[in-house]
Amino acid sequence: MRRADRLLRIIQILRRHRRPVKGQSMAEELEISLRTLYRDIADLMADGVPIRGEAGIGYVLGEGYDLPPLMFNADELEAVMLGLRWVMRRGDSDLKRAAMDSVAKVGAVLPQDLKPTLFDAGLLVPANLRSVEDRVDVSVLRRAIRDQRKVDIRYIAEDGAHTQRTIWPIAIAYFEAQRLVIGWCELRTDFRSFRTDRIQHAEARKDKYPERRKVLLKRWTELQHGSGGEPQLDVLN
Q1: Against a cut of 0.90, is the pTM above it?
Q2: Does 53 score more than 80 pLDDT?
Q3: 23, 31, 161, 188: least buried by Cβ within 10 Å?
Q4: Whole-number Å distance between alpha carbons of 208 and 194
Q5: 2.30.30, 3.40.50, 2.60.40, 1.10.286: which CATH number matches 138-226?
């Protein structure tokens, strides 16, 4: 690996993590010695890259620093295209449109020699014949998650029971055949998961839920790990 490419990889590794990254971990990923890594980091810092930390503790990239936006290699472009093609297949209408716009924006500014890697990527996402149609506009739920707003829903459970609930949506899980909205249910005073194809109506409220979404998501994740890591597939009670 050329030294210039190695320096870019170091910055990319640091961009990938929010917490300090140990030098040994980076050296192993780059397949270089720890001594070489320390020397490279010292050179980057001397060139003005805002890396903080020290040997034995770890390193973090300061906020506000970024690489040129399209320093992609072929593997990275294929990963981007595969993800966008999946969204075009499985996203709601707004996400599908956003994915197509993203391909156009990236392609418009790529160097000419990299355009075929993006537009002609040989990675396909076949249509999923098992997928079920949603009964609500999932973009309403996505916006509520971003804004941390409560949502009133009408829901039909697997046993056919109809309920009206107010939920605090914190995430949407995308499975092969359906999507689940994960949130705190005021009716059950607990976390619940709701299949979007069984939500009859969803309306975001003006009031926000009282806890931060990040905190709620952490609590939910810890509960899932404690129960084996598998989210509920439906509300049955």
Answers
A1: no
A2: yes
A3: 31
A4: 20
A5: 2.30.30
